[in-house]
Design goal:
By secondary structure, the chain is of the alpha/beta class. The protein has one domain (about 5-260): Rossmann fold (3-Layer(aba) Sandwich). About 45% of the residues lie in helices and about 15% in strands. The protein has nine helices and seven strands, in the order βαβαβαβαββααααβα. It has helices at about 15-25, 50-65, 85-100, 115-130, 170-180, 185-195, 195-200, 205-225, 250-260; strands at about 5-10, 30-40, 70-75, 100-105, 145-150, 165, 240-245. Strands 3-2-1-4-5-7-6 form a seven-stranded mixed sheet, sandwiched between helices. Strand 1 (about 5-10), helix 1 (about 15-25) and strand 2 form a beta-alpha-beta unit. Helix 3 (about 85-100) packs across helix 4.
């Protein structure tokens, strides 16, 4: 059994980019843990931080129920995630407790400062996770986890590279169901921030949900359209990941578990 630890900066980040893989791995008998570094308490146009924090953690629990997976948070305030030593120690202890074979996170060239910090923190832990005198209260790992990055569209310092491709057709409806548990984001904040006029002007929650489902289906078809040679013929919905050279060596066992 392999253990996959998916570390996003916010609740819903890994839901969007890796929940298809997560459900696929669970179905194969592997262990999957979701971790949100922040509590997501900045992403709203009208709610206060504490009210939003409470709401987003409840939404996180609902998504976890849909995916059938544990979903945890470091409970750092949204927008305040930094790649400093105290946060590195906090994340290090969590990683060592979970003992993952694979960690999935953001690249550190993302548009959002929390995303960048999250990716940097994971990379900063990549070697130190095996150093016994760093955070000596939690036993060091004897084997460095493989580190994979989720897809982004940024080209500096280098474009994303699709090293691993995972077909998610069998899980797409559950993936969308899980993502839409984050109602404060998709029905409210992201619609406001992105000026999704169809969602904002919808006459009911059901109408808005139908629009969002169509948007998400188009989004989740993107990887197979952008990297058709990486997927089995006929794949419509997929997820792609880049191998980070700072992590442990990608093995054929892990690759087969993910892609096979």
């Amino acid at each position: 059994m392999l253990t996959f630890l998916m570390i996003g900066a916010h609740p819903d980040d890994m839901d969007l980019e890796a929940s298809g893989l997560a459900m696929r791995m669970k179905e194969k008998g592997h262990r999957v843990v979701f971790l949100s570094a922040t509590n997501g308490n900045a992403g709203h146009m009208s709610m206060g931080r504490e009210e939003l924090r409470t709401r987003r953690l409840k939404e996180m629990e609902k998504a976890a129920s849909v995916f059938g997976l544990p979903y945890d948070t470091l409970d750092i305030d949204d927008g305040y995630l930094t790649a400093d030593l105290p946060t590195r120690e906090k994340l290090m202890r969590y990683i060592r407790t979970v003992k993952p074979d694979v960690i999935i996170t953001h690249r550190s060239c993302d548009y959002h400062p929390d995303h960048r910090a999250c990716g940097q923190l994971v990379c900063d832990c990549s070697y130190m996770v095996g150093v016994p005198l760093f955070c000596p209260d939690v036993p060091a790992l004897r084997k460095a986890p493989v580190i994979l990055f989720t897809e982004d569209r940024f080209t500096q310092p280098a474009p994303f590279r699709a090293d691993i491709a995972v077909a998610c057709d069998a899980f797409i409806e559950r993936k969308i169901d899980g993502v839409l548990q984050h109602e404060s984001q998709f029905f409210e904040w992201l619609a406001y921030d992105g000026n999704w006029t169809e969602v904002l002007n919808s006459k009911s929650h059901e109408e808005a949900e139908g629009i969002l489902r169509s948007q998400l289906r188009r989004r989740f078809m993107g990887p197979a359209a952008r990297f058709p040679d990486r997927f089995p013929t006929g794949t419509q919905f997929g997820e792609v990941f880049q191998i980070d050279e700072y992590g442990g060596e990608m093995t054929e066992e892990i690759r087969q578990a993910m892609e096979g």
